[in-house]
Amino acid sequence: MRKRCGSLVHVTDLAKAHCLALHYLGAGGASDAFNLGSSVGCSVLEIAAAAERVVGKPILRQIGPRRPGDPDRLIADPAKARAELGWHPQFPGIDDIIATALAWYARDIGRAAS
Question: How far is CA 9 from each of CA 15, 32, 35, 96, 102, rounded to the nearest angstrom?
Answer without folding.
Answer: 10, 19, 10, 11, 15
